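Incident review: delayed structure delivery

Summary: a single-chain prediction request sat in the queue longer than the usual turnaround. Root cause was a stuck worker, restarted by the on-call engineer. No data loss occurred. The affected request and its eventual output are reproduced below so the record is complete for anyone auditing the incident later.

Affected input:
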Amino acid sequence: WNRAYEYIYRMNSFLINVKDAEKISAEQKARLTGEVLYLRAWAYYNLIQRYGGVPYITKVFDLSGPFGVKRDKFDTCVDNILKDLEEAEKLLPSKENSAYGRANKDVVLALRCRLTLLAASPLFNDKDNPEGSIFRGQYDDKKWERAYAAAKAIVDRADKDGAYAMEPTYDGFW
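Output delivered after worker restart:
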């Protein structure tokens, strides 16, 4: 929990201050902003997977401001993560145009798939306990449709032009 919010603080600080950076090109700012939005979504995904709804903080607190932040409902967190992923996808390059190991549009699709599947699962979308709370979302059959669409998007991408295929030999992996 503490380490995740330490990283989120740093990411929020970056997102606020990158706009004023003069020595970074607009193209680099866009790519880095997309990467940070993806990483913030990843951090929050890990938090909600473990703790349910968490405080979804998108600003940087200073010593003179109030610190009391309440936990958001689970569904609110999921919606905010999806917004970060949507914005990241707009800013990130495709797999073919990104450096190896850097975030790209495909990793955004993969995280969206994992997130929507988690939100649709019976642990967080329970028919027998339909009201939403901090610890689980409000029951909705449409969450399964959203998870299906997200999974289909990444599977379709994997099949497109051999974007993800096995190497013909073992040596090809290295």
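Verification: The chain has a mean pLDDT of 89.
Action items: add queue-age alerting; document worker restart procedure.
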